[in-house]
Amino acid sequence: MKLLFLVDDDAKLRWLLAKFFEDNGFETCEFSSGAGVVEAVLVRRPAAVILDIMMPGESGLQVLQRLRQESTVPVIMLTAKGEDEDRITGLELGADDYLPKPFNPRELLARINAVLRRLTPGNQDPEATTG
Predict the structure, then answer these.
(1) In this structure, are residues 1 and 25 in contact, taking their beta carbons and an 8 Å threshold?
(2) What is the pLDDT of residue 120?
């Protein structure tokens, strides 16, 4: 079972996402802030991290920067900050995808699966790799 880290200060959203992802074959681990996320990524090696920006203490963007110094784990930003500049900043700092709230959980699942497909060996189109 693939492990997802859910990093958001909204306990109700984390609970709903955990239930949704568990119903769709994922294991989840929840964090209410960025504290300990990078260290946990290095130990638990999740398939992906779902990361909010606006949290108490360290922002999601700061967590993302620290993650990118230590890991290539896929990170999908899930945040209320949905302006163009916010999305561009998140992607430029190393996020693999960016989905503003409110969102459709099925779209988030599809985006996670798309990112994971790209990282799974053997899922490349053979014609795309041959000249």
Answers:
(1) yes
(2) 77
| Cα–Cα distance measured from residue 113 to residue 105, given in angstroms and rounded to the nearest whole number | 12
Dist CA 127 CA 108 (whole Å): 28
Domains of the chain, with CATH numbers? 2-129 (3.40.50.2300)
Do the Cβ atoms of 77 and 113 come closer than 8 Å?
no
How many CA within 13 A on the CB side of residue 12?
0
Distance CA 11, CA 39 (A): 21
Tens-digit pLDDT profile for residues 16-51 = 999 999 999 999 999 999 999 999 999 999 999 999
CA distance 25 to 64: 25
Checking if the pLDDT of 112 tops 70, the result is yes
Note the pLDDT of residue 79: 94
**DSSP, residue by residue, 48-98:** EEEE-S--SSS-HHHHHHHHHHH----EEEEES--SHHHHHHHHHTT-SEE
Q: Which residue has the higher pLDDT, 118 or 77?
A: 77
